Amino acid sequence: MAFTKKNEEAVSPVIGVILMVAITVILAAVIAAFVFGMAGNIQKTKVVAATESRVNTSSVVVTYQGGQDAGSLTEISFQVNGANATITAPGSLVTVTDNSVHTIHAGDALPVGTSIYVDASAPGKDHVVGIGTFNDGSTQVIIDNTL
User: 134 phi and psi, to 5 degrees?
Assistant: First the structure.
C-alpha cells in the first residue's frame, strides 16, 4: 500500500500577497479621492416635509409640515400622475393640466400647517409629487407618494 501526500493549500502564498496588495491599492485610491476632492461636491439634502392622505375618492390633501430648512424654501410645485397640478389658491381644489404650472410661494401662500386639496380621482393609483425650490437654486422632492 502506497501513501501519497496531497497538497491541501487553498491559495498559494504568491496569490495571497497579490490579493493583499490589490486591496491596499484600491483602499488608498478611495481615500485619496475623498482627501483630494476628486469625488466632487455632494449636495446637502434639505430638511423639509409634507404629508398626504386621501380624504375621499376624488381628493388628496397635502399638508406642508415645515422642517429645519423651511426658511430657505421659496416655492413648491405639485404633479399628479406626471402632469403639472395647477394651484388656484391655498386650500382650494387643485386641477390637473398638462400645460401649466402654478407654484405656491412658501413665504405668503404656504405657511407651515397649510393643507392643499389635490384633485386625484384614481384611488390607489394617484401618484402625487411635491417639488420644493430653495433660495440657493436647488430643488428637492418633498413628497412622493401614491394614494
Answer: -110, 165
DSSP 104: B
Query: Is residue 52 helix, strand or coil?
Result: strand
Tracing cell 413648491 back to the chain, one arrives at: 76
Write the pLDDT tens digit of every residue in 34-88. 787 765 666 788 888 888 888 888 778 888 788 888 878 777 777 888 888 755 4
The arrangement of strands across the sheet holding 59-66 comes to: 49-56, 59-66, 115-119, 93-96, 83-86, 73-80, 127-134, 139-146
Contact, 134 vs 74, CB < 8 A? yes
Cell numbers at 79, concatenated:
404633479
Query: What are 43's strand-pairing partners?
Result: none
Q: Among residues 41, 70, 52, which one has the least CA distance to residue 146?
A: 52
- The residue assigned the cell 380621482 is 121
Which helix (H) or strand (E) segment holds residue 7: the answer is none
Backbone angles phi, psi at 50, to 5 degrees: -145, 155
Residue 101: strand, helix, or coil: coil
Cell of 88: 388656484
